[in-house]
Specification:
This protein is α/β, with parallel strands linked by helices and 319 residues long. It folds into two domains: 211 residues, Rossmann fold, CATH 3.40.50.300; 98 residues, Orthogonal Bundle (Helicase, Ruva Protein, domain 3). Helices cover 45% and strands 15% of the residues. A five-stranded parallel β-sheet has the order 2-5-8-1-9. A two-stranded antiparallel ribbon has the order 3-4. A two-stranded antiparallel ribbon has the order 6-7. A hairpin with a 2-residue loop joins strand 6 and strand 7. The chain is globular and about 70 Å long. About 2% of the residues have low confidence.
């Protein structure tokens, strides 16, 4: 991707991302916020946790995004008998060469869909931790880097369903976002049925090498003012003092805010973060990092309700 200076570059980037969304919507109906969260997480170098009931089209969604970005895509189904070796791989002895050789697991890809992660046992879930944090895996005493870019998109069933294991707090914190995939409107469901009657040829917008260049540009060219950083810190600090919350957001939330809002600004053709970027990212960044006291969750209060109250209370900087 050629570098374009100044305003022309910003306009060109905005048009390219608009084309990216258009290509995805050739196949995917609705779910604009979910699509945006996945794309922001990918370009910000983060991972995303999708919560929904089965049958909501998560595999089609992630596979479509992979195709438009020319990224390698693999899917793993979370089951009680899934092992860590299925995820990372293992060293196997080759009778022909008389040496051990690496059999790569599903994690050696650009986009890994870990479907129904909380149906896999906790020990297996933990196999993702090093890969998500370090972008590498250690097998047989040797460390192997993962392809770049690399993102885990894990889907999670609501905890009230049977046969699920709650994700440990430390593992949830590794995800940049938690996004909730909701039921579509009746009009959107009609559009889905009609779309199944025809095939769609997808065009590619970026490739893995270009994604890495954009990730570097986001890191080096998008500015966050001290007033915005202070706004983020005050929001996070408020989560640690709310009477509804047993646990507030961790320091990783600050980093997630910074990386995700810089990516959002870049995608929209801006070189600086605005307060509305913080408000937009607050829900996916915080909802899995705060824990309600049971007396509040039992009465129907959600983490989103508390986050909304925090955003109302904490005053945004004037920009």
């Amino acid at each position: 991707m050629a570098k374009i200076p100044g305003v022309e570059r910003d306009k060109d980037i905005k048009q390219q991302f608009a084309q990216l969304y258009n290509e995805v919507h050739k196949v995917i109906v609705g779910n604009e916020e979910v699509i945006e969260d996945i794309i922001i997480a990918l370009f910000a170098g983060g991972h995303i946790l999708l919560e929904s009931v089965p049958g909501m089209g998560k595999t089609v969604l992630t596979n479509t995004i992979s195709n438009v970005l020319e990224c390698e895509f693999k899917r793993l189904q979370g089951t009680p008998d899934l092992t860590a070796k299925d995820i990372t791989g293992e060293m196997r002895y080759d009778e022909n060469t008389k040496h051990y050789a690496l059999r790569k697991g599903a994690i050696f890809t650009n986009i890994l869909l870990m479907d129904e992660i909380n149906r896999a046992p906790p020990k297996t879930q933990s196999a993702l931790l090093e890969a998500m944090e370090e972008k590498q895996v250690t097998i047989g005493g040797r460390t192997y880097p993962l392809p770049a870019p690399f993102i885990v998109i894990a889907t999670q069933n609501p905890l009230e369903q049977e046969g699920v294991y709650p994700l440990p707090e430390a593992q949830q914190d590794r995800f940049m976002f938690k996004t909730v995939l909701k039921y579509l409107s009746t009009e959107e469901e009609v559009m889905i049925m009609k779309s199944k009657m025809s095939s769609h040829e997808l065009g590619s917008v970026f490739n893995p090498s270009e994604i890495q260049i954009i990730q570097q540009e986001i890191e080096s060219t998008v500015f966050i003012s001290d007033s915005i950083l202070d706004y983020v810190v005050r929001i996070i600090d408020e989560t640690r003092h709310r009477r509804e919350l047993a646990t507030g957001a961790s320091p990783r939330a600050s980093i997630a805010f910074m990386r995700s809002t810089k990516a959002k600004a870049f995608i929209e053709g801006r070189d600086h973060v605005k307060p509305h970027d913080i408000r937009r990212m607050a829900f996916p960044v915080l909802r899995h990092r705060v824990i309600l006291y049971p007396e509040y969750s039992d009465t129907g209060t959600t983490t989103d309700d508390v986050i909304a109250k925090i955003l109302q209370k904490v005053q945004a900087p004037m920009m």
